[in-house]
Amino acid sequence: MNGAEQYGFQTAHRVSLLVLSVMLLGLVLELVRRGRLKERYALLWLAAAGTSLLIGAVPGVIERLAQVLHVQYLTIVFGISFLFMLGIVLGFSVVISRLSERSRELAQEVALLEHRINRTEKQGRHEPRHVPKESRDAWATGDADLR
């Protein structure tokens, strides 16, 4: 009985992991090729597929790591999975924060531009154009700052 089987990492597990890793790798590359997934987001997925390929091809890595840390191999797999998910969540939190801030800035800029247009039309004795309620509300509540 070799060390990989001793820890429960059997041939069927390895083959399944290899097949799933290759499928994930192909899917990520295809999504990037079609422009449905940006390269910077694909890097983490490619790293996950590469790690899975490594574990499937060389299960001794997990076995050795489990021996060094004095834990079962499944704990290592769950730990790596947890770190991967934590990285995904953190990355998306950063992106959402950046987009939220940019959205607020754009709403303020639109409100300022509408205000300037209305002021210019009033000075030129033209009819002021319609300003959407959302912009008026942002302006009235002070969400739109003057620059």
Describe the structure.
The chain is an all-alpha fold. It has helices spanning 3-6, 11-33, 39-57, 60-69, 73-123, 133-141. The longest helix has 51 residues, at 73-123. The radius of gyration is 27 Å and the shape is elongated. The mean pLDDT is 83.
State the main characteristics.
79% helix; 2 domains; elongated; 0% strand; 147 residues; single chain
Question: What's the topology here?
Answer:
Layout: H1 3-6, H2 11-33, H3 39-57, H4 60-69, H5 73-123, H6 133-141
Summarize the structure.
By secondary structure, the chain is mostly helical. It contains six helices and no strands. It starts with a helix and ends in a 6-residue tail after the last helix.
Number of helices: 6
Structural class: mainly alpha
Our Rg estimate from Cα atoms comes to 27 Å
What is the domain tally? 2
The whole-number mean of residue pLDDT values reads 83
Number of DSSP strand runs: 0
Question: What ranges have pLDDT less than 50 throughout 5 or more consecutive residues?
Answer: none
Strand content: under 5%
Largest sheet: none
C-alpha geometry: elongated
First and last CA, distance? 73 Å
How much helix is in the residues?
Answer: over 70%
**How do the helices and strands follow one another from N- to C-terminus?**
HHHHHH
